[in-house]
Write a structure and sequence with these properties.
This protein has helices at 2-5, 23-33, 63-71, 90-98, 109-119, 133-143, 148-162, 177-192, 201-209, and strands at residues 12-16, 37-39, 43-44, 59-60, 75-81, 84-89, 102-106, 123-129, 170-173. The chain has 210 residues and is an alpha/beta fold. The protein has a domain at 2-40 and 100-204: P-loop containing nucleotide triphosphate hydrolases (Rossmann fold), CATH 3.40.50. A hairpin with a 2-residue loop joins strand 5 (75-81) and strand 6. The chain binds guanosine-5'-monophosphate. The site of guanosine-5'-monophosphate (5GP) has 15 residues, from strand 5, strand 6 and helix 5.
């Protein structure tokens, strides 16, 4: 009874930000603490960084493999970001949503636009801003996983990514990780309770009124 009343449509939660705003850590923390959230694992042509795990962080594929996936319609969305291709495999997302799970996407503004066209109201988008210009630069440097020229390139591109903040449903400033996490969880909790997502409520209400 309670389970039926709690039945709801899964939602697609997008987190976008420039590199260095803390989005990857936020995604990981959200995943660890919310069993109803599944992370979408993207395919990319970018080389694997130290510590990254195939199939967990990304599916690392060749350019020709990526093109083949595009041609066969395997992606929900795909985009060229920092000279590398990135795409969201469609099938795992559809399976997770069908099971009523929410899917978290760590994708850029181009991918978010494409997902919004396809998913409409099922999409909830959050833009994560760094607390300041200096802090963004510091985080990019501390990370230091990329070559220095790549860091410089990303810093230059951060302003172009940030220029898309107003296309998002929500904006959070990631000054403090714990506070930002609470804010994101609050957004998710409210979105889950939206009437149109609570598909179990009509039957529940008829039970009450019987
Ligand atoms: P990174 O190479 O640092 O992991 O990611 C670079 C950028 O690509 C990030 O802004 C990230 O959100 C974006 N990105 C990762 N996966 C995808 C994807 O599947 N689609 C799109 N459009 N962007 C992605």
């Amino acid at each position: 009874m309670l389970n039926d009343a709690n039945h709801r449509r899964g939602l697609m939660l997008v987190l976008s930000s420039p590199s260095g705003a803390g989005k990857t850590t936020l995604s990981r923390r959200l995943m660890e603490t919310d069993p109803d959230v599944t992370m979408s694992v993207s395919a990319t042509t970018r080389p694997r960084r130290q510590g990254e795990v195939e199939g967990k962080d990304y599916f690392f594929v060749s350019s020709s493999m990526f093109t083949g996936m595009v041609q066969s319609g395997a992606f929900l969305e795909h985009a060229l970001v920092f000279d590398n291709q990135y795409g969201t495999p469609k099938e795992p997302v559809m399976l997770a949503l069908a099971k009523g799970r929410d899917v978290l996407f760590d994708i850029d503004w181009q991918g978010t636009q494409q997902l919004r066209q396809q998913a409409g109201d099922d999409l909830v988008s959050i833009f994560v801003l760094p607390p300041s210009h200096d802090e963004l630069e510091r985080r990019l440097r501390v990370r230091a996983q990329d070559a220095e020229d790549v860091v410089a390139q990303r810093m230059a591109k951060a302003s172009s990514e940030i220029s898309h903040w107003a296309e998002y449903d929500y904006v959070v400033i990631n000054d403090n990780l714990d506070t930002t996490l609470v804010n994101i969880r609050t957004i998710l909790a409210a979105e889950r309770m939206k009437r149109r997502r609570q598909t179990g409520i009509p039957a529940f209400v008829s039970q009450i009124l019987r």
